[in-house]
Amino acid sequence: xxxxxxxxxxxxxxENTEKMVSECKKRQIKVVGVTKxxxxxxxxxxxxxxxxxxxxxxxxxxxxxxxxxxxxxxMLIRLPMISKVKEIVKYSDIALVSEIDxxxxxxxxxxxxxKEYKIILMVDLGDLREGIYFxxxxxxxxxxxxxxxxxxLIGIGTNLTCFGGVIPTYSNLSRLVDIKKxxxxxxxxxxxxxxxxxxxxxxxxxxxxxxEINQLRLGASLSLGIxxxxxxxxxxxxxxxxxxxxIVKIKYEKEKIIGICISIDGIKVNDLTPFDKSIxxxxxxxxxxxxxxxxxxxxxxxxxxxxxxxxxxxxxxxxTSKYVFKDIK
Length: 329
Ligand SMILES: *Cc1c(COP(=O)(O)O)cnc(C)c1O
Prior knowledge:
Blueprint: E1 5-8, H1 10-26, E2 30-34, H2 42-50, E3 55-58, H3 61-66, E4 74-76, H4 85-91, E5 94-97, H5 100-112, E6 117-122, H6 135-145, E7 151-157, H7 170-187, E8 193-195, E9 215-218, H8 220-224, E10 241-253, E11 256-262, E12 272-274, E13 280-284, E14 288-292, E15 305-310, H9 312-320, E16 325-328
Parallel strand pairs: 1-16, 2-3, 2-9, 3-4, 4-5, 5-6, 6-7, 7-8
Antiparallel strand pairs: 1-10, 10-11, 10-15, 11-14, 12-15, 13-14
Helix pairs in contact: 1-2, 4-5
The structure holds pyridoxal-5'-phosphate.
């Protein structure tokens, strides 16, 4: 066995996905299964596909390229880079957009390759991220979009809970619905999709969500069973990704026994929750992780393995690190 190691429980991810797909279906919401947390790994993506997500989404076109063999439409969920337009048009079918210059480039490439490319225009509801904030500007942009060849504006969308920390509410999502209606009226067209955010929006399921929201882009909820503010979502599995580190030294310090494990780059103390509740994480740097093993009844020794539940950020770090062995089953 190779360490550091991340164990991925596909069955639990599949259970999460089936549950979320069914909850969304009850509300006529289509699910974009977001694969960025596991870098477009095909085995895990297959669990999402088998659980009947409608679209596969990723922030990197390289990851979507890996998923080409799946028949589902692919969505690029991070604003497109002009330098990658060729790959974007080739390996994805839908993009979240907000800049007229990049849409223009996509249109040119789509025309050249004879593809009808779909776009969802992003609206900023206060989170200061990828969308357009002012309604005038949204309409100006749409006026331009409608002139482009091979571009099909299928809807509008938003992303919340990221940069500005704005949380999804009935009221801010209703604003999105109003904007959609006003666009339809002004331009005499139909927008099929209102993409109402990420796993954070699931928090509205027990309250009230505008019925017009008909798409969510779900990553963390499917992969880690977490939603708004990384809080566990009831009924979903959280123990889907486990990090396993090896002890390379035991130190006796005053009254304490400290275990030193080989760590991984970019991980923080709060990212890790040891399965053995009597262990606590003291400190971490790029080389080593220090754990307090004074309390456990078991005498840990050099070579022992320590298992942790990990945060969203740490999962991303571990999955993208070439030094971490991925055990996907
Ligand atoms: C990552 C991402 C998502 C998925 O977010 P989760 O919180 O993982 O569900 C949705 N939309 C965009 C634009 C993203 O970048």
